[in-house]
Amino acid sequence: MATNGNSPSPAMGEIIQLNVGGTRFSTSRQTLMWIPDSFFSSLLSGRISTLRDETGAIFIDRDPTAFAPILNFLRTKELDLRGVNISVLRHEAEFYGITPLVRRLLLCEELDRSSCGSVLFHGYLPPPAIPPRKSSSAPDERPGPSGAEGFTRVSPLPHPSLSDSPCDDTEKLVPIVDPRKVLIVAGHHNWIVAAYAHFVICYRIKESSGWQQVFSSPYLDWTIERVALNAKVVGGPHGDKDKMVAAASESRIILWSIQDGGSGNEIGVFSLGVPVDDLFFIGSQLVATSHTGKVGVWNAVTQHWQVQDVVPITSCDTAGSFLLLGCNNGSIYYIDMQKFPLRMKDNDLLVTELYHDPSNDAITALSVYLTPKTSVSGNWIEIAYGTSSGAVRVIVQHPETVGSGPQLFQTFTVHRSPVTKIMLSEKHLVSVCADNNHVRTWTVTRFRGMISTQPGSTPLASFKILSLEETESHGSYCSGNDIGPFGERDDQQVFIQKVIPITNKLFVRLSSTGKRICEVQSVDGTTITCFMVRECEGSSRMGSRPRRYLFTGHGNGSIQMWDLTTAMDTANKGEERRKEEVGGPTEEELLQLLDQCDLSASRCATPSISPAPSVLHHARLRESCSSLQLQSQEPVPESQATYGAVRPYRESPLLARARRTESFNSYRDFQNFSLSRGVLDNTGQTSNCG
Fold this sequence. Notes:
Residues 14-83 form the BTB domain. By secondary structure, this protein is an alpha+beta fold.
């Protein structure tokens, strides 16, 4: 046994006794010293102080299991990987500074990696050039139609402050957004739009040439939080071949028209007067909604922007030309956008109450299913909705019930937290609640296309889509990282699971059962900052079918594409061979991901103690925490925001009040929470999500 590992002139044949994590190893000094500048050469030369156990052996507080193959490599210069975790072994080899071993292990890890991706990798759009800033001049404000409120048309940028906003000379403290990373990806038909912090880029796909950039917006002075795209505009300002793209920040919305050749013109800048929570197109109408109860509509035919006051909105969905609104008073309202131009004279949208929840609970999630018979009879409609108390209800209107309105068909009370998402389709009913994205699914029985009570909906699956995120994420985070479900066809509806906020891996899971379809990992190792699933029209050749793609936006500004149609076909072919179905990340995969994430500064996107994202809407939900949250006493410096690092969590007054009320099980509880007043009182605070 070595008596003095720090001897200045030791014999190279001296025996060294090591205690690695409680396991004894004996080797020669020559074995440990043949690699220069390693941990052992520094240790045995005296540059690193040693700690010895009671027997005099040098103690090293590391994993003894991983040390054994490292010592064998030092002895024989050969590597046996049987039963060895390459990632763990490389981590330990890096600690000990065994450079030749690290290089070999890196090559082993790269065997299954390629910058060209796996068989599912479909394409790569490089980071675009940042557009120049738009030259500023005196703003031109034009009033809207007489009586229309909240109308502001400003051109060009920068935009003036809103007249109805309180004056505040103090600058808002908002999260700093990297101008290079992709915040949101949205799509329509064969077009996609990528929203960056201060500009948007539009791409389109052609069968022969693939994806090509066709439009770049000017550089905006404000940070984009929402984006919408319409690739098939009927009756646009420059004809039916127009495309339109809109971007929103806080209460402001800017709208561009894109001609067939790719040149774009600014249509105008509009104001909703309150923060925009949802931005989308219904036909040729641009629609913006806010949780405060305002709906703004711009019509491509009449060229008018109009804002209407409604009850505070907690969810919304579209069906054909109809906009359906779930509100905090327990009512579901609808607006027929086809009648919009006829109502311009008296400047009022026709808002009609469709149904009222029997328990007066806030409607926190909404899904409309148009049956094949809807095209024959417009009175044939089915709606599933979730409430702030966790109830899931299905209401149905058939031609024979037109006179009395929709009838309550089914009620499920399996959730104990507010329902945040719901999807009703031909074969399945899927609901998600705020308890760490807990999902419940049912099979739907139909007779001649009509939902049936015999035998009725039966439970199918229960699982979670665990998703952590930064506690102070930007307002665009929720729009760009929506878990789904995506898709219209039952057998291909999927959830996209992003387990930790800063990661390069996503899990694609079937929405009906939670089964894992595939996992994707960025081909260049960059962080995935947003994602979206879109079905693009296939080849014009007869017999071709549309293909579904997963688009991922990345921290370096690139967009990567993944072929989910191939993934689904592969999963279905291998279904018979697999006895055990894998859902989200396994325990081992989850722990590996969590090793990259500071749990003291992360939380679940849908904590069980908070209202649904549509109750406080996305911007307010980020102020809540989850059961996985560990309180951090010291803030993490922004300069240390590396891979896996996130900002610390600070409990908000909103959350403290939610803790005291514990739940939102009734409309009265919801009123006590003072949604509209409480949120409006805090509009000056930083929005943590969107």
